[in-house]
Design goal:
- It is globular and about 30 Å long.
- Helix content is 0%, strand content 52%.
- The protein contains no helices and 14 strands.
- It holds the Pfam family Bactofilin.
- Belongs to the bactofilin family.
């Protein structure tokens, strides 16, 4: 990002119901009820997101109820995640709570359905 890059802040007293799409960086301290798609997401400890998150990079410290897809993902010790996590690079601090499955982006095609067994086809 160049020196002209911008970021948006959603304050702790703000609740948004609906999806958010941002080409800039997004800092969330409030409550979001909807999906978020942005370049970079920073979530504060008191923040709550009820929906999916898609970002190039994400640093999560609050509660997320929904799936997360990010190239670079950092889950801080104060985070509580309920949903599946897809990533290229992952860092989790000791004490973080995640209730969901982890899958690297490169190994998890979006529409792939795993076959239970090759022998079952015979």
């Amino acid at each position: 990002m160049g020196s002209g890059s911008t970021f948006s802040v959603i304050g702790a007293d703000v609740t948004i119901k609906g999806d958010i799409a941002a080409t800039a960086d997004l800092h969330v301290d409030g409550t979001i009820e909807g999906d978020i798609k942005c370049a970079s997401l920073v979530q504060g400890e008191s923040s709550s997101i009820h929906g999916g998150v898609v970002a190039e990079s994400a640093r999560l410290a609050g509660r997320v109820t929904g799936s997360i897809t990010a190239r670079e993902l950092v889950i801080l010790k104060s985070a509580v995640i309920e949903g599946d996590v897809h990533y290229d690079a992952l860092t989790i601090e000791q004490g973080a709570q995640v209730d969901g499955r982890f899958a690297p982006n490169a190994r998890q095609p979006v529409k792939a359905v795993p076959s239970p067994s090759i022998e079952a086809a015979e």
